[in-house]
Amino acid sequence: MPVEVSCPGCGLKLKAPDAMTGKKAKCKKCATSFRVPGAAAAGDSNGDEPLLSAMALPSPFDFDAPPAARDVGSLPSADPFDFDAPAARPAPPPPAPKPAPAPPKPAASPKPAPPPPGSRPAFGAARAAAAVAPPAAPPEPTPAPKATPAPARPSAAKPKPAPAPDPAPLEAELLPLDDEEDAAPDTDTRPAKAADPFAFGGPADVRAEPRGRRDRDEDDEDDRPRSRRRDDRYDEDDRPRGRDRDRRRDDEDRDREAPRYRKGAEKSGNAMRYAVILGVLAVGAAVAAVVVYVKAKREEEQARLKAEEEKRKKEEPPPEPPKDDGKGKVDPKGKEKEPPKKDKEPKEPAKKEPAAPAFAIPAAAKPLTVNPLAPPGGGVLQTPGDPKVAVEAPADKVRQVFPSDGGDRDTVVVWVSNPGTGGKGQRVAVDTYDPKTGAKGKGFEFDGDGSAAVKCDVSPDGKQFVAAGPDGKVTVWGLADGAKVVDGFDPYGELGPDGKRHKDDGLAAVYFTKTPGHLLTVTSAGVVHLFDPAAPKGERKKQATGPSGVLTAGKVTRGRNVAADESRSVLVLAAYGAVYRYDTATLRELPGKITLGGEVTRPLALGVSAGSPGHLAFLFETDANGRKEKGLMLVNGKGDPAKPAPEFYRWADAAGEAAAVDWAGDRLAVVATTKGVVWVEFEPEAKRLYPFAFAGVPDGKAVHAATERHWYLVPDPTRPGGSLLLPLAWPPGETLDIRQDALAGSALHVLKLDEKGLSR
Question: Are 489 and 637 in the same domain?
């Protein structure tokens, strides 16, 4: 007769044949393994558990269920904290089983040991009732008596719960467990499956039986080794079956406690995730496209360069066979080695030459002294002549004056209209004035290079003006209309490597020559070039010259140690311990080179008079004797040109520091200083040059120039921001006593020079 059992895992009511009593079986729904109640037959197999078929579940509303079904009223509430649950209906008494042959009495079981500390206690009465082992043979179904409903309590909303059954039978049936591993999974305080209000009828839930008792019964009936029996307690995933059931219970609890989302919330979250994923994929695709494009462009450029290189190699002529240079060495390029050029710097760093000794002023040099300044009121010695030019520029901004004695030449005034900032942005203005009327003519402006001295010049005929810009290029203007005659001529642009070196040294000065249209340029290292800007390209350079030896940039400055005479026939250069003179038409060096025997520390002013070779005045500073001294060198041009005889003076600090030298003809040198002017006169009878007198100017603000007369520019007291350019004829009147004292070697007389003229 088939045996009805309940699955300990899911509570499903199952049917097992009589032959399966006492053997292991597996639930067809949840695949839970358990042993069918009853005594095992001889020859029990240890193979796979057979699947049991499910019986029809009873309806939860069938109150006429067979006796094996449980009544809902007899079950406790599923909520362990529901103390107001209705009282459970008493369970009907079990039907009396049919008499059967009495089985052998099993040995009395000892009282089970208390559970280990920390384990959960048994659920209580409900589990105690379910822990009773089912009978060996199923009872015959008998009609179950109808349950009597519990009387309602008028004073309480809910009836009291029924008292829990006596747990004594459970304690009598509990057996001690064999080891901790069998006891651990069964310490569960959660209600058994039988507490489910929808699980009705059937025998007591086998799962509610204490695990220790079930395992002990199995061990008693199984004569296999303990290790083999322990292996049966694990499922296919090598985990204890009890622990696996507990883990499933935990998963079910988590599922019940999972948060509930509103309708549509989960869908919107999924849509957002999909949108983010699509955005990331789109960005990745764009980046990949850019990488592919850049890689393709790079490969295309490399292919183009490779094709050009191959084309260039095909067009190159085959190399010539190497030639022997006669010393067993062959030039790797097959060309004979050329000797290094002298004007090129060697590849290896050249050894530094010992510094040239400083020039020492000869001990026989005469001291130049100045008398103490006398109070004004001595009377006017000479008034300025005509024409008096009213200049519109301030005296402190005028850099150079090119005066005119009449004729067709205009007076040219060069001044800084905008000083700029940091050496950049400087603007230089050029104004012209009529020599007869003093009226201002048409002027123009150009960009300066930021230096204090403007690199400019006026042609001997007074018709053109030349200046160097900040980029080293040269421009020539016509003074009559301000139009450019030569625009941006690069003097060193056609000289190859040498031109780059000269351009790096910088342009120090530019001059016209006595040949119309030709220009002279001087680098800061002292190299002089002659150019014809109107010649075809490649033929503009005519000649070059300069001091021999190693040249250094920054040695030469316009007006300080390089100058030209008024007719632009002679160029004078004082550098590297010598004074050179060159013919401007051919750059031929003129005889009369002066060797100083040492180099001056700082050049101050240089000027040469007209004629060949002309008088020479050079002012300098030196520190040969361990202290700085200023000196004046005068060279008489009327002597033997091949054997010049310079004469030296020790400069007086009371006269100020020299700034420029101009010659008025061949008799008077005008030495401009920071305090006024020192005149140097040539005495034809004595054939010598000597300092004549010192004339101070108001606040030292004056600009000096010379033609046949001495011109000086001072502030105009009647016009703020204006100046006066005044001429002074030579020799000044009533100066006989001054000349006699100067020839005798006395201290220089002090005079006064202002807009009124020359005064004592």
Answer: yes
Domains of the chain: total:
2
According to DSSP, residue 507 is labeled: E
The β-bridge partners of 491 are none
Sign (positive or negative) of CA dihedral 213, 215, 221, 225: negative
Q: Buried b vs exposed e over 631-646: b needs ≥16 C-beta within 10 Å?
A: bbbbbbbeeeeeebee
CA trace torsion 31, 33, 34, 39 (10° rounding): 110
Q: Give domain status of residue 738, yes or no.
A: yes
Q: Which of 250, 273, 289 is the last residue of a domain?
A: 250
> To 10 degrees, the CA torsion angle through 255, 256, 261, 262?
140
Q: Is the dihedral of CA 138, 139, 144, 148 positive or negative?
A: negative
- Condensed to tens digits (0 to 9), the pLDDT of residues 483-527 reads 999 999 999 998 988 999 999 999 999 999 999 999 999 999 999
Q: Give me the residue label for tokens 């053997």.
A: 23
Beta-ladder partners of 573: 562, 580
User: Which tokens belong to 7?
Assistant: 């699955």
Of 693, 697, 696, give the one whose Cα is nearest residue 748: 693
**723 bridge partner residues:** 391, 715
Distance (Å, whole) CA 234 – CA 241: 5
Report the CATH number at residue 747.
2.130.10.10
More confident call, 747 vs 83: 747
Q: Answer yes or no: is 321 within a domain.
A: no
Do the domain assignments include residue 335?
no
Interval 208-237: pLDDT, tens: 444 544 444 444 455 555 555 554 544 444
DSSP 67-132: TTSPPGGGSPPSSTT-TTPPPPPPPPPPPPPPP-PPPPPPPPPPPPPPPPTTPPPP--HHHHHHTS
Predicted local confidence at residue 26, as pLDDT: 82
625 phi, psi to nearest 5 deg:
-95, 20
Of 614, 604, 598, the C-alpha closest to 558 is 604
Q: What is the mean predicted confidence (pLDDT) over 73-97?
A: 49
Assess whether 243 and 388 both reside in one domain: no
- The reply to whether 484 falls in a domain is yes
What is the helix (H) or strand (E) element at residue 447, kind and residue range? strand 444-447
Return the bridge partners of 421, or none.
424
pLDDT at 137 over 50: no
Q: What is the 3-state secondary structure (H, E, C) of 458-491?
A: ECCCCCEEEEECCCCCEEEEECCCCCEEEEEECC
Look-up of token digits 């822990």:
131
Beta-carbon count within 10 A of 655 CB: 25
Residue 496, phi-psi category: left (phi > 0), alpha (psi -120 to 50), beta (remainder):
left
CA distance linking residue 681 with residue 665, whole number of Å: 11
Domain match, 567 and 713 both = yes
pLDDT in tens, 380-429: 888 998 889 999 999 999 999 999 987 789 999 999 999 998 878 999 99
Cα 361-557-567 angle, rounded to 5 deg: 95
| Sheet of 484-489, strands arranged across | 456-458, 464-468, 474-478, 484-489
- Output the pTM of the full model: 0.56
What are the distances in angstroms from CA 157 to CA 77, 100, 153, 160, 410? 16, 49, 8, 10, 131
Q: DSSP code of 159?
A: P
Per the structure, the complete domain to which residue 8 belongs is given by 1-96+111-250
Domain final position from 250, 269, 286: 250
Q: How far is CA 626 from CA 240, 623, 632, 657, 709, in A?
A: 108, 5, 19, 20, 40
Average pLDDT, the chain: 75
Q: What are the CA-CA distances from residue 214 to residues 37, 497, 633 (Å)?
A: 10, 109, 134
